[in-house]
Amino acid sequence: MRKAYCAVAVLIFFIGFVAAPATAGDPPKLVGLALPEAGTDKGWNEQGKVGLEIVAKKYGFKIELAEALGYGDIKPTLRDMAKKGCELIICHASGYQTVAPEIARETGVKVTTVENHRDITAGLISDIDTQPQGGSYLAGWLAGKMTRSNIVGIVASAEPPTWNRMSAGFAQGLKASNPNSKLLYSVIGEAAYADAAGGKRNTQDQIAVGADVIFGMGDGASFGMLQACTTKKAADGGKAWFIDVIGDKRSIDKADVLLSSVIMDMSVVYEEIIKSYMDGTFGQQHWIGMKNGSIYLMELNPAVPAGVKEELNAIRKNIVAGKIKVADIPTAVDLHKFLKKTFPR
Amino acid sequence: MNDIFGSALIAAIIASTIRGTTPILLAALGETYAERSGLLNLGIEGMMVAGAFSSFAVALNLNSLFYGFLSAAVVGLTLGLVFGILTITLRVNQIVVGLGLTIFAHSMSSFLHRVIFGNQFPILFGAGGTNEIPVLARIPIIGQAIFNQHWMVYLTFAMVPVLYGLMYKTRFGLRVRAVGETPLAADAAGVNVNRIRYYTILLGGLTASLGGAFMALGDLAFFVPDMIMGRGYIAIVVVMLGQWNPFKVCWGGLLFGFALALTSAMQVAGINISPDFILMLPYLFVIVALLLFTRSTNLPSSLCVPYKRGADGK
What we know:
- The structure holds two protein chains of two kinds.
- Chain A is α/β, with parallel strands linked by helices.
- Chain A has helices at about 1-20, 45-60, 75-85, 100-105, 135-145, 160-175, 195-210, 220-230, 265-280, 305-320, 330-340; strands at about 30-35, 60-65, 90, 110-115, 125-130, 150-155, 180-185, 215, 240-245, 260-265, 285-290, 295.
- In chain A, the strands form two sheets. In chain A, strands 2-1-3-4-5-11 form a six-stranded parallel sheet, sandwiched between helices.
- Chain B has helices at about 5-35, 45-60, 65-90, 95-115, 140-145, 150-170, 170-180, 185-190, 195-220, 230-240, 245-270, 275-295; strands at about 125-130, 130, 150.
- Chain B has a two-stranded antiparallel ribbon.
């Protein structure tokens, strides 16, 4: 009798094992990653490369990397990736939002774009967009607490949606933490992502008129901003602090002026994309934001008082819980209106 | 205008103008001579990139700013020589060679930066300093802005009258101009056309490379690929704006530098104009100046025309 029970149990287990629908497929064997700049820029491109490497290690796939592609026609590169057997190509720049869907439709290879909601296609094209304003709200709060002159500056290398969202969030956080503060806002150029000299010039001008905390968004240009904070003292003779975005520049911050950075951890969204590839739901909108933990404030400079750290922790929880609503402003025109309204001059 | 638009910002504008003009002016001064002799060097952008990278890499490794600038000089002269061999001796199209050199220098600098520094972006401490001129630096508002600059700034502006004198007051300058206008006649008068052109392109390569070195060692103290951001091409426009006259080229450079400084200062001052329009200003200034001042300008007659003895200059 006991043998019969065992046999039935094994049979049920076997039938269940065979008949159950597959809940997870295999990850891709080869994933292409197209970067506009070198994957060593301590910013957007490096975060993309490092993020995918983390996910590749976890899921056991290989990466076909093409970096420093610029913003021209990258179709030959993408076709080459498809020929090499990439089952998924991540086009890690908003500048690729036209060519990437074309290649997906031409070759049938799945692609991921950036800031391109309109081309999302089930099973073929997924998109990554950013919701970084919560992180920059925290940065604005920090700036409001650390400024001595009550003058804080934003320097941006351009005005893409991500930078605009960050600027708006920063301004909102600054106003909330220090209602008496003034905010300066400068754009270096139309697409001055690598203009380090422009970054330095704009930052120096802001420091010259009294700013002592600079929030810089720039890729290569942010090296110039950091350099300006390193070499130019604030009006009171003290440090001009710098708050960075996307990456971690602590290794080159010899003058210890880096307060923090709004980090974008791409590995979180890349893992979401790989999971969607595996479970057959590929072709969705993915967000880099605080809710999934892909946006956070880097470890704070030791000069930040413990009380401010505790405040920031509490605010972070409130933002994630939706108790603090941070403005989502992607366009430059709306951003300018918002800044004028929040900080009338 | 508002309360923060005060003397501090005016001083910052003046300082930014001078600092921003320097690399453009330096490159433009050499290009003035090259174009005057009939050579259009579109490789100037690449020479600036190569100068910036080589000076930074050498200065960082040898811990010496002197060797950094020296290496930029050597690299500039070498690239100038390459341009000369290809366009003067081998008579290859100048535009093709210039663009090719720029692409090569860009790619090589990025590649070597990656190989040497990996994902590190080291900063050269001690670079980017200024040299204050006693007494003059104490003049209110403009003192610190003008007389507390990097030594390369003083050198660049001092070169303007020297190169003007060389162009218009010496036999060498006369030969440069003659070679650029009618090389056949110059040759008939006993001028070695190719030798003069080699001299000018070597000068052009040297100054362009030093312009890049100033950005890496004098202004920023680090190197980032693409940091030149088209300043080489702006130098070419400034040369045309200055009608191949070193003094006018200097004014053209200052105009562009001032417009660049204004883009930042106007935003900081919170002037109620769209940033899009403000960012357009430098290019608008240059276009308007080109329209106003260069309508009657004639290009050097043999600009871009290779010279071959006994072939009617064609």
